[in-house]
Design goal:
The complex is a heterotetramer of chains A (250), B (437), C (378) and D (539). Chain B is of the alpha/beta class. Chain B has helices at residues 24-27, 54-73, 93-106, 118-131, 161-171, 185-200, 221-230, 245-257, 274-277, 301-314, 323-342, 347-354; strands spanning 40-46, 81-87, 111-114, 135-137, 150-152, 176-182, 208-213, 237-242, 267-269, 289-292, 358-360, 366-368, 376-377, 380-384, 390-395, 400-401, 415-418, 425-429, 434-435. A 7-stranded mixed sheet of chain B has the order 7-6-8-9-10-14-15, sandwiched between helices. The longest helix of chain B has 20 residues, at 54-73. Helix content of chain C is 69%, strand content 2%. In chain C, α4 crosses α11 and α13 (308-328) crosses α15 (351-363). Chain D is globular and about 95 Å long. Chain D has 3 domains: 2-123, no CATH class; 132-220; 242-533, ABC transporter involved in vitamin B12 uptake, BtuC, CATH 1.10.3470. Chain D is of the alpha+beta class. Classes of the chains: A alpha/beta (250), B alpha/beta (437), C mainly alpha (378), D alpha+beta (539). The interface between B and D is large, with 65 and 67 residues.
Chain lengths: 250, 437, 378, 539
C-alpha cells in the first residue's frame, strides 16, 4: 500500500472515527516496529480503547489506513480473522470464561484450528497438555487449574487473561490496563511478566498507572482527544508542557 | 360470581394421572384401590375453560352441569345419579385429544359433551373412534363429516346459511354479496357452498366478494371500508359473516362507527348469538341479522321455563341463553332417552337407539335424531335488537334436516350417510354404490 | 472417531440417565403389551401415549437447552422447527390414508377435496414415501434454521433482538400455515391418520413402538448433546454464552459456532415434532403459536437451564403438571401453573436439577470444583 | 332512548299540526282502519299498508309510522286491532295510535307485536322522509332529504320540487336536488332530464354519487354512457382520497399499537424486564373501564359520557398498583437476570388472566362508547370515525406526557439514573427500590390507560392482553429498545405499512409480510430503528 508501512508490525495512518458526532479518533497515526513494546497513556476519553477496537476489528474506522505487517489491511477483516493473524487482546475489564475451569480457559485459547468441526472432534494431546502446564506456571495459576475462573480474584483473572493471550501465540499483544485493580505487589509482578513476554512478542500496553509504565521502561505514546499528543520516553513526555497541561488541566 | 363456587362443585375432581410419570409403574398398583362409592353414570364435559375459546365454551360446560342437575332432581337415569367429569382442554387442540382419552379410558365416562371449534372435534375424533365412545357436538359447523361415534346437534350449513341467504334475497332484495369470514374451515366451506348456491341462483361472479381474516382480527377499518365500497355499486348489498367469535366485537364496533346501518348493508352472521352480543352495545347494530335454530327470544313455554331454570341455577339474572346451549339441551335429552330405551349406557346399544329419538326443542317443537347423526331443526332468522336480543323475522315453515354432505360441493354431492343397518356407513357414494367415498 | 466422540461425552451421571432412558423405552412398552390389564404393573395405553407426548416435548426442551443453556441464544421460536418436523410427518401420514379418506380420493387429502383443489400441490410430492418424509423432517427445519441463522448471526443480532425475531419467525409461520390457501389444511391441520409404515397407528403395538422410539430418540439426542457440550466445541459455546467478544478475540468465528448449534438444535426439534405427531394424531398451526415456544423455554428454566437432564425433567414435570391440573382443577389450574413458574424463578433460580446439583455439590464441598455448574451469566 | 324518541315524535306531531293546519285530514276511523292493516300479513303487506297510510297525506301518519319503526305497535289478538303498547309493570297499556286515547291494560299474552325488519324500517324512513321534507326543523328536513335520496322513489318528485322551491338552507337544498336527480333516474321522464340528472350527480364527486350512478352505467343509450363517464371521473378523483384514507387507517392502527406498546417500552425498554404480563395490564385497564361503566349504568346513568374520563385515572391507579405489587413481590428479586423475568411474568400473566376470569367470567363484557366517541364524520371523502380520532389524540397525549415525565421531572431523572447505573444511583442516595417500583408502576399504569382506550374498539375479555403482547414486543424491538421515540416511529411505521399492504395482500398475508420485513430489518439494524450508537453499547 504505502512504502512507509514497510517493515512495520502495526501501522496506523490518518485514522478517524466519529460516534454520533463525537470524534473519538482524530487523524491518529501510530507506528509499531516488530518486537517493540509500547505504552500508551492518556486521560479518559482520549480514544485508547477505541484505537484498540479499530486494530482488533471491533470498530471500523471512517477513514485511514490500519495495516498489519506492512501489507494486511485490518479494516477489511473481522475480529476472528485478526485474532488468527496473531493479534491478541486483553480487555480493560478482565474477561475470562467464568464458568470454565482455569485450565479450560487456557485450553480454549491455545493455538489450534478454530473451526466448529475441528473443535467438535478435538482431543487434547500430550503436547497441548504440556503447553497448558507451562502457561499455568508462567501465570502462577498452576495450583488453581481446576478452579472455576469465577472463583479467581480480580488480579488472578487479569493474569489468566494474559495467559490466554500467550496461549494464542500472537505476534502482537494489545493489553488494556493490565494493572487495574491489582495490589502493588501484583502490579510489579505483572510488569515483570510483560517484559518477559516482550522479549518474544510485540506488545502495546494501555495504562493509567504511571509507576507501572515506569517499571516497563519503554517508549510512551500520549493520546489526547483521539490523536497523538507526544511520543518518547516517559521522562521526555512527562516534561512536555502540552502533556502536563492535558493531565493537570490549565 | 366465582365460577368455581357454583356448578362445578357437583363435578367430581378427577383423580386421574395423579400417578407421577416415573411413578406410573409403581403407582398403577394403587388404582385398584379406588374408594367404593355409590354407583353413578359418568358424563364427560370437554369444553375449554381457559384460553381463547373459554369465552364461548364455559357457558356450555355450565349448561351440561345444569342439565345434569335437573336430571338428577328427576331421579337420574336408569335409577343412577349422573356425575359430571369436567376437564379443561384449555383451547389447546392436542390437549383435547389427550383429555378425551382421559375421560373415556381413565374416567370411563358413558358419553362426552364437548368441543366447539372444528379442529378440536377433528382432534378428538380418532380417540372416540378408537375407544368406541359417544361425543355430542353442539355447534354449527361446516358439515362434510358423519361419524358413527359423533352426534351433531348444531346446525349443518343447510340449516343456517342457505335459509339466511334465501331470506335476504327474498325479503331484502339483496343482489350483491360479501362473504366475510375468519380463515378456517367452517367459513371456507360455508362460503364455498354459498358461492355455489348463489351462482346457481344466477348471481354473477363480480357480485360476490369473499374476504378472509385471521382469528382474533381486531383492526377492521380497511375491510369495513372495502365492504362499504363494494356496497356502493348500486345494487342492494348484504354481508354474510362467518367471522369467528372473538373478532366479531371489533367488527361490529367498526361497522357501527363507520355508520353502516342495517337498512343500508345488512350483515347476517352465523356465529353471533346472544352471548357474543352481551359484549356489545347493540344500539348501532339494530337490524343486523343472525341465523340460528334457536333464539332466547323464542316465544314458547318450554323456553321460558328453561331460561328461568338457567338463571336460577347460575344465580345470575343476566345470563343469556343461545343456540349451542339449546343444542346441548336437545343432545342431552336425546341421550337420556336413548339410554332409557336401551336400558344400558353401553356405547353400541345407545348409538343404535339414538337414531330416531325425538325430544322437545326449545322453540316449542320436536327435534329428531336422523340416521346421519344430525338432527332436525327449525331455522330462525333474527334481527338484533337494542337490548342484545334477537327479534325473529323469519322462520322456516317446517323442520330442516341437517345435510352432512353438501349438494353444492363437487366432492360430496354424491355422498350420503346412514348409520342404520344394513348400510351403516357415513360416506356412502350413491354413484359408485360403495361405502367409503 | 464418532464413537470416541460420543463416549467422550459420557460421565457417570450421563451414563445413568442414558441407561434410565433405555430402561423406560423397554420396560414401559413391555408393561403395556405383555402384562394383562388387571396386573398391578400394567401401564394403560393412554398412559403410554401421554408419556410419549411428554418425551417428545422433552426432546424439544433438550434442543432449546442446547442453544439457550449452552450458547445463550434465547429462542422464542423453537416451536416452529418442532411444528415443521411435525408437518413433514403429518404429510406422510396424510398420504398414507390413500382411498380411506371420506371422499376416497386416491391422491388428494380430504381437506383438499372439499375445498375443490384439483390437483396435489408440488410440495406434497414425495411425501408418500417414508424415506422422503424422513429426509424432510431433518432438512426442512434444518434448512430454515440454517438460512435464518446464517443471516441473523452474521448480522450479529443478539440478545432480546434475536429472541423477538425468532418469535416473529414462528408467528409468521403460524399465520402462513393458518391460511387455507397454503395447502396445509389451514386451522384444522392434518389429522385422521390411519397407519404408519403399514402399521395401524391406533394399535397398542404401534403406540408402544412409537413410545419406545421416542424415548430412544430422546436418549440418543441426550447422548449427542452431552457429547457436543463436553467437547471443545461445547466449551467454546459456553464461552460464547459467557463472554462473546472474548471468544471472538481468541479467533473463534462465533457466528459459525452459533449456526452449528442452532441448526443442530432445530433438527433435533424437528425430529421431536415428527415423533409427536403420530402419537397425538393431529398437527395444526397452533403448534407454531409463540406461546408454545415460550412454554418450551419455561420447561427448560423449570428443569434447570444448562443441564441437559434438567431440560428433560422440566419438560416432563411441567407437562405432567398440566395434565394433572387440567383434570383435577379444571377451573383453577392456571393459578397452579402460573404459581409454579413464579415459585421456580424466585426460589429455584437454577431450576430443579440445577438446585439439586448445587445442593449435592455443597454436600461434597471438598470435591473438585469442576462439577459446580455456575448460574448462567444472563 | 325510547323516551327520547317518544318525545320527539310527540313534538313532531304537535309541530306538523301547528304548521300546516290545512293539510288533508282523514277521519279517525278511516285512519285507524289503515293502521290496522299494518298488522295483517307479512312484511310485503305491511309495506303496502305503509304506502297506503302515506297516500292519505294525513299529518298524524309520520308519528304513527315512527312508533311503528320503534317496534311499539301491537295487534290485539282478540280483534286484530292495532295499538301502541307501553309497558306498565308486567302488563301493557294500550293507546289508540290515531287519537292517543287509552284503550285499557292487557297482559302480554293478549297482544302480539307487529314485526319490523330492515325492509319495513327502510319503507318507514322513506315515507316519513317524504312527509317531513318541509318540516320547520332543518335537521329533520336534512334527514328527510337523505332518506328520500336513498329511496329513489319517482313518486316523491313532486314533493321534492315543492320542497326545493321552499328550501332556504343551501346545503339541504343541495341534498334535495341530488335526491330529486336520483329519483328522476328511476322515473319515466324523458332522456334529456335523466342526462341532466346524471350530470348533477356526477358533479357531486362523492362515493354516494358514485353509488347512485353505478346502477345506470350498464344501461343502453346516452344515459348509460353519461353515467359511465361521470362514474369514471369520480373514480379517478376518489383514488387520491383512498390513499389518504389508507394513511389515516395506518395512523389509527399505529396509535393502537403505540398505546399497546408504550407501557412495555418502559417496563421492557427502560427497565429491561421481559414483561409477559404487560398485556394483562392492558386487560386490567379495560376491565376497570367496564366496572366503572357498570357502576355508572346502575347508579348514575347521566354520567355515562364521562365514564372514560373517570375510568382513566382509576385504570392508571389499579393497573399501576398491581404493577407495583408485582414488582415488589416478584420482579425485584430478578434484576440483572432479565431472562428469568420472562418466566416469572409469564406465570403472573397466567394468574392474572385466571383471576379476571374467575371474578368477571369468561364471557366478553360490554363496554359502551360514550356519545362523543360514536359515529363518524367526513372531510371531503375521508371518513373519520370519532373513536379512532380520539384514540389517535389520546395516544399522542399519553406519549407526550410520558416523555415529559421521563425527561422533565425529578422522578424521570431518577428513573434514568437507576436504569443506567444502579450502583452509582444508589450511592448517590437515590432509593433505587422505590424508583424501580414506581417505574414499573408507571409502565403498568400506562398499559392500564391504554386498556381504557382499547376497550372502545376491541373485546373486553380475559384474553384481551394476549392479542397485543406479541405486537407490542415487535414494536418496541423494531423501534429500538430503550428509546421512546423509537417506539413511536416503530408503531406508526408498522401501522401505515400494514394498512398499505392489506388491500393488496389481504389481512393475513399482509401481516406475514410485515413480520418478514421486521426480521430482515433487524438483520440490517441489529439494534432496531433508533439504536444507541457508540462504544458503550456492548459494555
Amino acid at each position: 500500500m504505502t512504502d512507509k508501512a514497510e517493515g512495520t508490525l502495526l501501522y496506523l495512518d490518518g485514522v478517524n472515527k466519529t460516534f454520533d458526532g463525537f470524534r473519538a479518533i482524530n487523524n491518529l497515526s501510530l507506528v509499531l516496529a516488530p518486537g517493540e513494546m509500547r505504552a500508551i497513556i492518556g486521560p479518559n476519553g482520549a480514544g485508547k480503547t477505541t484505537m484498540m477496537d479499530i486494530i482488533t476489528g471491533k470498530t471500523k474506522p471512517d477513514t485511514g489506513d490500519v495495516l498489519f505487517e506492512g501489507s494486511t489491511d485490518l479494516t477489511r477483516l473481522d475480529e476472528a480473522k485478526i485474532a488468527n493473524l496473531g493479534i491478541g487482546r486483553k480487555f480493560q475489564k478482565p474477561t475470562v470464561f467464568e464458568s470454565h475451569t482455569v485450565e479450560d480457559n487456557i485450553a480454549l485459547a491455545l493455538k489450534a484450528r478454530r473451526g466448529p468441526w475441528a473443535t467438535l472432534f478435538h482431543r487434547t494431546g500430550k503436547a497441548e497438555q504440556d503447553r497448558i502446564d507451562e502457561l499455568l506456571t508462567t501465570t502462577r495459576l498452576i495450583d488453581k487449574r481446576r478452579f472455576l475462573a469465577a472463583r479467581l480474584s480480580h488480579g488472578q483473572k487479569q493474569w489468566l487473561e494474559i495467559g490466554m493471550l500467550l496461549a494464542q501465540e500472537p505476534r502482537l499483544l494489545l493489553v488494556d490496563e493490565p494493572a487495574a485493580g491489582m495490589t502493588d505487589a501484583e502490579t510489579a509482578e505483572t510488569a515483570i511478566l510483560l517484559k518477559e513476554i516482550a522479549r518474544t512478542q510485540s506488545v502495546v500496553v494501555v495504562e493509567h498507572d504511571m509507576t507501572f509504565v515506569r517499571d516497563l521502561g519503554v517508549k510512551v505514546t500520549v493520546l489526547h482527544e483521539g490523536s497523538v499528543l507526544a511520543e518518547g520516553t516517559l521522562d521526555a513526555v512527562s516534561s512536555n508542557p502540552k502533556v502536563v497541561e492535558v493531565y493537570l488541566g490549565r | 360470581m366465582l365460577i368455581a363456587a357454583t356448578p362445578s362443585q357437583t363435578a367430581k375432581r378427577s383423580s386421574l394421572v395423579a400417578k407421577g410419570l416415573f411413578g406410573a409403574l409403581a403407582l398403577s398398583m394403587l388404582s385398584g384401590t379406588a374408594l367404593a362409592q355409590e354407583e353413578t353414570i359418568k358424563v364427560g364435559v370437554l369444553h375449554s375453560l381457559s384460553g381463547t375459546m373459554a369465552i364461548s365454551e364455559t357457558t356450555l360446560k355450565d349448561t351440561i352441569l345444569y342439565l345434569i342437575d335437573e336430571q338428577n332432581k328427576k331421579g337420574g337415569v336408569l335409577g343412577k345419579k349422573l356425575e359430571a367429569v369436567v376437564v379443561d382442554p384449555a383451547s389447546d387442540w392436542p390437549l383435547f385429544a389427550e383429555k378425551a382419552r382421559e375421560l373415556v379410558e381413565k374416567e370411563k365416562v358413558s358419553v362426552v359433551f364437548g368441543c366447539w371449534t372444528s379442529v378440536s372435534r377433528k382432534s378428538v375424533l380418532p380417540v372416540f373412534k378408537e375407544l368406541n365412545s359417544i361425543l355430542f357436538y353442539p355447534v354449527q359447523y361446516e358439515g362434510e363429516e358423519s361419524e358413527r361415534n359423533v352426534f351433531y346437534t348444531g346446525a349443518a350449513p343447510n340449516q343456517q346459511a342457505i335459509p339466511a341467504v334465501d331470506y335476504l334475497a327474498a325479503e331484502e332484495g339483496v343482489e350483491r354479496w360479501v362473504l366475510a369470514g375468519t380463515d378456517y374451515v367452517y367459513p371456507r366451506t360455508t362460503n364455498k357452498i354459498l358461492e355455489a348456491y348463489l351462482k346457481a341462483k344466477g348471481v354473477a361472479a363480480e357480485d360476490i366478494m369473499i374476504n378472509y381474516t385471521p382469528f382474533g382480527h381486531s383492526d377492521w377499518q380497511s375491510i369495513v371500508a372495502d365492504i362499504k365500497k363494494f356496497g356502493s355499486a348500486g345494487k342492494k348489498t348484504a354481508v354474510v359473516s362467518t367471522i369467528n367469535g372473538d373478532a366479531n366485537v371489533p367488527f361490529y364496533k367498526e361497522l357501527g362507527n363507520q355508520g353502516i346501518k342495517a337498512e343500508d348493508i345488512p350483515v347476517v352472521a352465523f356465529s353471533v348469538g346472544e352471548e357474543e352480543l352481551a359484549g356489545l352495545d347493540t344500539g348501532p347494530l339494530v337490524g343486523h341479522l343472525a341465523a340460528w335454530n334457536y333464539f332466547q327470544s323464542v316465544d314458547a313455554p318450554v323456553n321460558a321455563s328453561f331460561i328461568e331454570g338457567w338463571k336460577a341455577y347460575t344465580k345470575n339474572d343476566k345470563r343469556v341463553t343461545n343456540d349451542p346451549m339449546e343444542a346441548h339441551y336437545i343432545g342431552f335429552n336425546m341421550w337420556v332417552k336413548a339410554v332409557e330405551a336401551a336400558g344400558t349406557t353401553d356405547t353400541d346399544p345407545v348409538i343404535d337407539s339414538l337414531i330416531g329419538v325425538s325430544v322437545p326443542n326449545l322453540s316449542g317443537g320436536y327435534s329428531a335424531m336422523m340416521p346421519n347423526h344430525h338432527i332436525t331443526k327449525p331455522v330462525l332468522i333474527g334481527e338484533i335488537q337494542g337490548d342484545g336480543q334477537f327479534e325473529i323475522v323469519s322462520q322456516t315453515p317446517g323442520l330442516v334436516v341437517g345435510d352432512e354432505w353438501s349438494d353444492f360441493l363437487d366432492g360430496s354431492k354424491d355422498l350420503i350417510s346412514d348409520w342404520r343397518k344394513p348400510m351403516n356407513c357415513g360416506n356412502f357414494n350413491v354413484v359408485t354404490g360403495k361405502c367409503g367415498g | 472417531m464418532i464413537t470416541g466422540f460420543l463416549l467422550n461425552g459420557f460421565d457417570t451421571r450421563a451414563r445413568v440417565v442414558f441407561a434410565l432412558l433405555i430402561a423406560i423405552a423397554i420396560l414401559v412398552p413391555a408393561a403395556n403389551l405383555l402384562l394383562p390389564p388387571d396386573h398391578p404393573l400394567h401401564v394403560p395405553t393412554y398412559m403410554v401415549t401421554l408419556m410419549g407426548k411428554y418425551f417428545a416435548y422433552a426432546m424439544l426442551a433438550l434442543s432449546v437447552d442446547l442453544v439457550w443453556g449452552y450458547c445463550g441464544i434465547l429462542s422464542l421460536g423453537h416451536g416452529a422447527f418442532f411444528a415443521l418436523g411435525g408437518y413433514a410427518m403429518g404429510m406422510y401420514l396424510m398420504r398414507q390414508i390413500g382411498t380411506r379418506g371420506v371422499y376416497a380420493d386416491p391422491i388428494l387429502p380430504d381437506f383438499m377435496v372439499f375445498l375443490n383443489w384439483k390437483e396435489l400441490p408440488w410440495f406434497w410430492y414425495g411425501f408418500d414415501q417414508f424415506w422422503f418424509a424422513a429426509l424432510m423432517i431433518v432438512l426442512v427445519p434444518g434448512t430454515l434454521a440454517f438460512v435464518f441463522g446464517w443471516f441473523a448471526f452474521r448480522s450479529r443480532v443478539t440478545g432480546v433482538y434475536l429472541s423477538i425475531i425468532t418469535q416473529a419467525l414462528t408467528y409468521a409461520l403460524l399465520l402462513a400455515f393458518f391460511r387455507n390457501d397454503m395447502g396445509f389444511g389451514g386451522n384444522n391441520g392434518l389429522t385422521d391418520f390411519k397407519d404408519i409404515l403399514g402399521y395401524n397407528i391406533q394399535a397398542d403395538g404401534t403406540r408402544a413402538t412409537l413410545f419406545a422410539l421416542t424415548v430412544l430418540a430422546v436418549a440418543i439426542a441426550f447422548a449427542l448433546a452431552s457429547a457436543v457440550t463436553r467437547s471443545k466445541l461445547g466449551k467454546v459455546l459456553v464461552g460464547v454464552r459467557d463472554a462473546e467478544s472474548r471468544t471472538r478475540f481468541l479467533g473463534y468465528r462465533v457466528e459459525n459456532y452459533k449456526l452449528f448449534v442452532w441448526t443442530l438444535s432445530a433438527v433435533m426439534a424437528g425430529i421431536a415434532g415428527a415423533l409427536y405427531v403420530p402419537q397425538i394424531g393431529i398437527i395444526n398451526p397452533s403448534e407454531f403459536d409463540p406461546a408454545n415456544s415460550i412454554e418450551a423455554v419455561i420447561w427448560v428454566a423449570v428443569g434447570g437451564r444448562g443441564t441437559l437432564v434438567g431440560a428433560i425433567v422440566g419438560a416432563i414435570t411441567v407437562n405432567f403438571g398440566k395434565t394433572w391440573f387440567t383434570g383435577a382443577l379444571p377451573e383453577l389450574w392456571l393459578f397452579a401453573l402460573g404459581g409454579l413458574f413464579i415459585f421456580v424463578t424466585l426460589f429455584l433460580p437454577k431450576g430443579i436439577v440445577g438446585t439439586v446439583q448445587a445442593w449435592w455439590a455443597g454436600k461434597r464441598a471438598s470435591a473438585p470444583a469442576a462439577t459446580l455448574k455456575p448460574e448462567p451469566a444472563e | 332512548m325510547r323516551f327520547l324518541s317518544i318525545l320527539i315524535a310527540a313534538l313532531w306531531l304537535a309541530l306538523s299540526t301547528a304548521v300546516s293546519p290545512a293539510a288533508a285530514a282523514v277521519a279517525d276511523e278511516d285512519l285507524k282502519r289503515l293502521v290496522d292493516a299494518l298488522g295483517v300479513g307479512g312484511f310485503s303487506e305491511a309495506e303496502a299498508a305503509i304506502n297506503a297510510l302515506v297516500a292519505t297525506g294525513d299529518d298524524r301518519v309520520s308519528a304513527i309510522l315512527d312508533r311503528f319503526g320503534e317496534g311499539d305497535l301491537y295487534t290485539r289478538k282478540a280483534d286484530k286491532s292495532v295499538f301502541i303498547a307501553e309497558k306498565a309493570g308486567s302488563d301493557f297499556k294500550l293507546l289508540d295510535p290515531v287519537t292517543g286515547a287509552e284503550a285499557g291494560v292487557v297482559s302480554k299474552g293478549e297482544i302480539e307485536k307487529i314485526k319490523v325488519n330492515n325492509r319495513i324500517r327502510r319503507a318507514i324512513a322513506a315515507a316519513v322522509g317524504s312527509l317531513t321534507l318541509r318540516s320547520p326543523d332543518a335537521a329533520i328536513r336534512r334527514s328527510a332529504a337523505e332518506a328520500v335520496m336513498k329511496s329513489k322513489d319517482a313518486a316523491a318528485i313532486p314533493a321534492l320540487d315543492a320542497a326545493i322551491e321552499a328550501e332556504t338552507d343551501p346545503a339541504i337544498k343541495q341534498i334535495m336536488v341530488a335526491a330529486r336527480a336520483a329519483a328522476v333516474l328511476e322515473s319515466d321522464l324523458p332522456e334529456a332530464d335523466k342526462i341532466a340528472a346524471v350530470e348533477m350527480i356526477g358533479g357531486l364527486g362523492t362515493r354516494d354519487a358514485m353509488s347512485m350512478l353505478a346502477a345506470y352505467t350498464a344501461v343502453e343509450g346516452p344515459v348509460g354512457e353519461a353515467a359511465a363517464s361521470a362514474a369514471r371521473t369520480i373514480e379517478s378523483s376518489l383514488l387520491v382520497w383512498d390513499a389518504a384514507q389508507n394513511v389515516w387507517y395506518g395512523l389509527s392502527l399505529g396509535s393502537v399499537l403505540l398505546l399497546a406498546a408504550i407501557g412495555l417500552a418502559i417496563t421492557f425498554g427502560v427497565m429491561g424486564v421481559i414483561n409477559m404480563a404487560h398485556g394483562e395490564m392492558v386487560m386490567i385497564g379495560a376491565y376497570t373501564t367496564f366496572a366503572v361503566q357498570e357502576i355508572i349504568r346502575t347508579s348514575a346513568p347521566g354520567l355515562f359520557d364521562y365514564s372514560l374520563l373517570i375510568a382513566l385515572p382509576l385504570a392508571f391507579i389499579v393497573a399501576g398498583g398491581i404493577g407495583i405489587l408485582i414488582e415488589r413481590s416478584v420482579i425485584r428479586w430478578l434484576y440483572g437476570r432479565p431472562l428469568e423475568t420472562l418466566l416469572a411474568t409469564w406465570g403472573v400473566s397466567l394468574v392474572l388472566q385466571q383471576t379476571v376470569r374467575s371474578i368477571f367470567g369468561a364471557q366478553n363484557k360490554e363496554v359502551g362508547n360514550p356519545s362523543w366517541m360514536s359515529g363518524s364524520f367526513t372531510i371531503g371523502e375521508l371518513s373519520i370515525t370519532w373513536s379512532r380520532l380520539w384514540i389517535i389524540v389520546f395516544a399522542m397525549v399519553v406519549f407526550a406526557g410520558l416523555l415529559a415525565v421521563l425527561k422533565r421531572t425529578y422522578f424521570g431523572l431518577q428513573t434514568r439514573a437507576v436504569t443506567q447505573n444502579r450502583q452509582m444511583a444508589s450511592a448517590m442516595g437515590i432509593r433505587t427500590p422505590w424508583v424501580d417500583a414506581f417505574t414499573f408502576g408507571l409502565g403498568s399504569g400506562i398499559a392500564g390507560i391504554a386498556g381504557v382506550a382499547l376497550s372502545q374498539i376491541d373485546n373486553v375479555s380475559p384474553n384481551l392482553g394476549q392479542g397485543y403482547i406479541i405486537d407490542s414486543f415487535m414494536v418496541v424491538v423494531f423501534g429500538g429498545v430503550g428509546n421512546l421515540w423509537g417506539t413511536f416511529v416503530g408503531a406508526m411505521t408498522l401501522g401505515v405499512a400494514n394498512k398499505f399492504l392489506e388491500p393488496y395482500a389481504g389481512a393475513v398475508l399482509g401481516k406475514i409480510l410485515l413480520l418478514v420485513f421486521i426480521i430482515l430489518f433487524i438483520q440490517k439494524r441489529p439494534r432496531g430503528l433508533f439504536a444507541l450508537k457508540g462504544r458503550a453499547i456492548e459494555a
